[in-house]
C-alpha cells in the first residue's frame, strides 16, 4: 500500500457535549445530538516513513507534538501487532488538513481524530467495527466519536462510543451556515474549558442535569424533522452551556462582538419569518441551522454583519471516504 487517504466531516453538536466524567478518557458527562457538515472536510493521508525514527504528524503543513495523537496511534498499532502485521512498528507519516479554520471552534478535532482513526484502521487492514473505531477516536477527542459516522449521531452521557441516528438523507433540505468571526485558534482549548467549568462553575451540576432533559426533547424533534421545535432546543442548549462556562473561575468566554451581533441578526431574521436558529461551541464562530429555501437570504443578511469574515454553507454530511493508493494499481475508493 502506497498511501491511505480519508476524508471526514466535522460533527456539529445541536445539543451540546460540555463536560467529562472523572473516570476514563473523554467520557461525556452530558449527552449530545449532532449533525455532520458535508461541505466542510478534513483530509488525512497516511504513508510509511521507514527512514524516520518515529511517527510524524502534521496539520496544515505544521508538524505537531506526537503525544497529542498517541492514544489513537498506540491503540491501533497494538491491534496491528496483535494481528501479526509485519509493518506494525514501521514509522508513519500522517499529513492532515482542513477546508475550514483549525482549532477555531468548528470541531476540527472531531473530523481530525476520526480521519486518523479510520486511516490507521485501513492502513493496517484491521477492519474494526465502526463502534470500536468510535471508541478509539473518542480518546483523541470526545466529539470524534461522532465523526466516524455520517449524518445524524448521538453520543450518550457516560458512553465510550457514539451511535448513528439517521443517515445524511434523513433531512436533505437542512442547511448549516457557519459565520466565521475569527480564523485564529481559540484562546482556551475545549478540554481545558470543560475542566475549568466542571471544577469551578457553580452552575455546572445544573447544566448537566438539564442537558438530560433537552436531549430527549431534541431527539423527538429530530425524529419529526421539526426545525420549529429543534431550533429553540438548540438555542437553550448552547446558551445554558455558555452560562455554565462564563461562571467558571476564571471565566471561559469565547464570544466576540461579532458573535453577539450574529446572534441578534438571527433573532431579527426569525422575527421576519425566516428559519435561522443559531448555536455556538467553544469558539467565536456562530453556526446557523436553516433550510435550503432560506439559506441564501440568511447568508446575505449574516454576511452584512460587521466582523463576519466569511460564511461557510453545508448540507448534512455523509459517511467518511477512504481512498487507497496502491503502488501499482492507482487509486481505489471505499
Task: Explain the overall architecture.
The chain has 334 residues and is α+β, with helices and mostly antiparallel strands. The chain folds into 2 domains: 3-167, Ribosomal Protein S5, domain 2 (2-Layer Sandwich); 174-314, 2-Layer Sandwich (Alpha-Beta Plaits), CATH 3.30.70. Helices cover 35% and strands 23% of the residues. The chain is built from 9 helices and 15 strands. It has helices at residues 70-82, 108-123, 130-138, 144-147, 190-200, 204-223, 227-246, 257-271, 295-303, and strands spanning 3-8, 11-15, 32-36, 42-48, 56-59, 62-63, 92-98, 152-155, 163-166, 174-180, 277-280, 286-291, 310-314, 321-326, 330-333. Strands 6-5-7-4-1-14-15 form a 7-stranded mixed beta sheet. The protein has a 4-stranded antiparallel beta sheet with strand order 2-3-8-9. The longest helix has 20 residues, at 204-223. It is globular, with a radius of gyration of 20 Å. The chain starts with a strand and ends with a strand. The mean pLDDT is 95.
Amino acid at each position: 500500500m502506497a498511501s491511505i487517504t480519508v476524508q471526514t466531516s466535522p460533527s456539529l453538536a445541536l445539543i451540546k457535549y460540555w463536560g467529562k466524567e472523572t473516570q476514563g478518557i473523554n467520557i461525556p458527562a452530558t449527552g449530545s445530538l449532532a449533525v455532520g457538515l458535508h461541505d466542510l472536510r478534513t483530509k488525512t493521508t497516511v504513508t510509511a516513513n521507514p527512514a524516520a525514527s518515529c511517527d510524524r504528524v502534521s496539520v496544515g503543513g505544521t508538524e505537531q507534538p506526537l503525544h497529542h495523537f498517541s492514544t489513537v496511534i498506540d491503540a491501533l498499532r497494538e491491534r496491528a501487532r496483535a494481528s501479526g502485521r509485519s509493518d506494525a512498528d514501521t514509522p508513519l507519516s500522517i499529513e492532515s488538513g482542513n477546508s475550514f479554520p483549525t482549532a477555531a471552534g468548528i470541531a476540527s478535532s472531531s473530523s481530525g481524530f476520526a480521519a486518523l482513526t479510520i486511516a490507521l484502521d485501513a492502513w493496517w487492514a484491521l477492519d474494526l467495527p465502526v463502534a470500536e473505531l468510535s471508541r478509539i477516536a473518542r480518546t483523541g477527542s470526545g466529539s470524534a466519536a461522532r465523526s466516524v459516522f455520517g449524518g445524524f449521531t448521538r453520543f450518550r452521557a457516560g458512553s465510550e462510543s457514539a451511535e448513528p441516528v439517521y443517515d445524511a438523507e434523513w433531512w436533505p433540505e437542512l442547511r448549516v451556515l457557519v459565520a466565521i468571526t475569527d480564523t485564529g485558534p481559540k484562546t482556551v482549548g475545549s478540554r481545558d474549558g470543560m475542566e475549568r467549568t466542571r471544577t469551578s462553575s457553580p452552575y455546572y451540576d445544573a447544566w448537566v442535569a438539564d442537558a438530560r432533559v433537552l436531549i430527549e426533547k431534541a431527539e423527538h424533534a429530530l425524529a419529526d424533522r421539526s426545525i420549529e421545535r429543534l431550533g429553540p432546543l438548540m438555542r437553550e442548549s448552547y446558551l445554558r452551556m455558555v452560562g455554565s462556562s462564563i461562571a467558571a473561575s476564571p471565566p471561559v468566554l469565547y464570544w466576540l462582538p461579532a458573535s453577539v451581533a450574529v446572534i441578534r441578526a438571527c433573532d431579527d431574521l426569525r422575527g421576519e419569518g425566516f428559519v435561522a436558529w443559531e448555536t455556538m461551541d467553544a469558539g467565536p464562530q456562530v453556526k446557523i441551522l436553516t433550510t435550503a429555501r432560506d439559506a441564501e437570504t440568511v447568508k446575505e443578511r449574516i454576511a452584512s454583519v460587521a466582523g463576519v469574515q466569511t460564511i461557510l454553507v453545508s448540507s448534512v454530511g455523509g459517511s467518511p471516504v477512504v481512498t487507497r493508493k496502491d503502488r501499482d494499481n492507482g487509486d481505489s475508493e471505499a
